[in-house]
Amino acid sequence: MTHYETRTPAELPEQIRHYIDGEFVDSADGATFDVISPVTNETYIQASAGSSADIDRAVAAAQRTFDAGTWSQALPRERSRVLHKIADVVETRGDRLAELESFDTGLPITQALGQARRAAENFRFFADLIVAQHDNAFKVPGRQANYVNRKPIGVAGLITPWNTPFMLESWKLAPAIATGNSVVLKPAEFTPLSAGLWAGIFEEAGLPAGVFNLVNGMGEDAGDALVKHPEVPLISFTGESSTGQLIFANSAPHLKGLSMELGGKSPAIVFADADMETAINATVFGVFSLNGERCTAGSRILVERSIYDEFVERYAAQTKRVKVGLPHEPATEVGALVHPEHFDKVMSYVEKGKEEARLVAGGGRPEGFETGNFVAPTVFADVSPDASIFQDEIFGPVVAITPFDTEEEALKLANNTKYGLAAYVWTNDLKRSHNFAQAVEAGMVWLNSNNVRDLRTPFGGVKASGLGHEGGYRSIDFYTDQQAVHINL
Ligand code: NAD
User: Fold this and answer.
1) Which domain holds residue 108?
2) Which residues form the Aldehyde dehydrogenase domain (predicted)?
3) Alpha-carbon separation of residue 72 from 25, 122, 436 (angstroms)
4) Which of 112, 201, 287, 451 could form a disulfide with 102 if both were Cys (CB 3.0 to 4.6 A apart)?
């Protein structure tokens, strides 16, 4: 059995604890759960396992702070200053954050570093947006004036997944707090390490105690209690579509405001007139970066038949050059998957794929990695649209390639899943690219480009990939009420 040299970060806390009303606390019943290293699959720390009693306590603290008004009624400029400070502190702690995140999630260290920068940018962006915010006012001369009062809603429940956890938490925390709400965050149980950093960051930046509260634990315990809590009118959730469905149902009795960022099985469509070299580089990156554990991964590649054989051959060759390694090593491009349960799921699809399609790269553990959650970047060609590896979100370094003959067929294939998060189109035909973007069922489309986005644009999916959009003013809209005031003149 291989024994890897793991690099445990210095000065880990003794235990991962909740953070409520400005203090680290244990669960009311003292319960904990094991957190494991994705490289060794050994338990490296215990985390407090929250139950409804801990959620009650966190919601009460958040509500008290909201009612006190120190934060909820502060001027946008005052809140903005604190948010900018938060961004500054996140930036100065980027190396530490990346070290913890890579250790806890198995992400390559170089890619974890980018996540810290993005987290800081999310805070800076909303710090600027709330002072630039303007709302509608209308006047009917001699009759009526009307204006909009924008108000924070109260306690927002934030539930996040284990892929790029710190960055995805920032994506919800920044707009929720910027608009004056208090929050209770329930991070994913596979990767709770980095969420605890927020406490110190927020304290240093001067956020009043009780605005940010954190309860760790299982989805079905702590997460469920947060969703069902009557004093939490908003739930922003990112995770699997099936969990989203359950949360929908559980929120229904309270008619909660919901934002749902769910799963994906996004197509990358490569036409014969595309720059093949660029398309190959981008689509290799698009599915194998972040270990393939990326909601917007281009995990189905549809290729026009006239270039299909050459594309598959070159794609497979390029995939074989992707470097699998220990997450902390700077040369690593694909690290360890987050957890043995997830590893088993991904491996089960690799095995299914061998029956459903033609394996052209990877197909199991990479050489030299007999233990830990390592999967060789895997490419299947000639994948039929009814294959499970074409339809299901695998959420690992596995890609399905399928040929098409016409633009109509490409569109039909692209839309042939229950998901609709992202789509990537590679063609030098300007008209075709825009028309295809219009027709494809995806919340976000990238034309001849990869995953980079302006933070002002909407983010979210259609069909089973989500409901509602976050990003820019849409996040502000989600976390606030817009009250209309009408005045007779
Ligand atoms: P998951 O649905 O298993 O868990 C997400 C979170 O929900 C965790 O914190 C979990 O504890 C909690 N949870 C689970 N059951 C719950 C319940 N009954 N009530 C309340 N909370 C509950 O998802 P995951 O496996 O952690 O994350 C991977 C998934 O997230 C993938 O499907 C991926 O596509 C999706 N994702 C989507 C986006 C996006 O923006 N669309 C971004 C990242 C990840």
Assistant:
1) 15-262+465-484
2) 24-485
3) 24, 20, 44
4) 112
